Amino acid sequence: MNKEYKNKTLPQLRREQYKHRYEDDVPYIKDWARNPYTFLKARFYIEVSSVILYFLQKTNITPNYITAGYAVTGFFAGVLLAVPGKYFALAAAIIFFVNPTLDWVDGAYSRMIGKCSFTGHILDVYAGYLPWLALQVGLGFYVAQKAGFEKMLWLIPVIPFLYATNLVTFMKTEFSDRALIDKELAKIDQKGSIGKISQSNERLSLVKILSRTHRIYQNIFDGRARGVDLICLVIILEAFTGFFISWAIFVFLVIKQMTLFLSSFISVVFFGRAEVELRNQLKGYNASRGDGENIPV
């Protein structure tokens, strides 16, 4: 462990956290007018994470344990939300609201003790993914129980199933196979063979439109703080009032995943998105070699 970072005071840790976030240019962290919610939430994360870091520096806990704790805690909150009873729902909402603070702790802690790792990066991505999926599934059980409409339960497995079978996501895992991509690039890296993967301008435009629409739609209730916190606020309001709108949020999430699944399937199967991505790879491949014949995308 890097002894230089041992036994820092709480004010020191706070200053370092703010300095790092400013330098990292976290969106709206300095701009109250444009986004007051993000401005305040970022400061909440910094203040709470600084306190956690103050106590962590006196332990031998590794950063990866913190990241894993973020994932497991989010999963546990999803289970709590699925359990009948308003106090379980309230506990889940509070956990989901506070839990992302750990995501601001693990990276800072890694830098403090000089233990950044590739495993940590993978865990960090996974830990951001699991709690959001757990929240959606837990919300399904919560809504079905609150509405007294058991037939709604069949919608719950739709969300994880569509997450797991999204064709664009699967396609991107194939593009991470450098041996496969290099082999495909080698096939088309011969004079006159570029046309084999060429597409009409109309088809390319359609793929771009689908991709852009996919990204915009995906950003609505995408697991970031604003969406998660809005769901938590709705659950808290429903615990103390006759207000009940969480069913609409859940239905929207199901429809959203269905739409994203269909758009990904259509863009790959009917509009050759894989070939378009391969064109992008070839463009970068030619550019890296300094070839003059690049393919416009």
Describe this structure in words.
It is a single chain. With 297 residues, this protein is mainly α. The chain folds into two domains: 1-148, CDP-alcohol phosphotransferase transmembrane (TM) domain (Four Helix Bundle (Hemerythrin (Met), subunit A), Up-down Bundle); 157-297, no CATH class. It is built from 13 helices and no strands. The protein has helices spanning 10-23, 36-56, 63-82, 86-98, 101-113, 118-147, 158-164, 167-175, 178-188, 201-218, 225-240, 246-269, 273-289. Helix 2 packs across helix 5 (101-113) and helix 6 crosses helix 12 (246-269). The longest helix has 30 residues, at 118-147. The model is unreliable at 191-200 and 289-297 (pLDDT under 50).
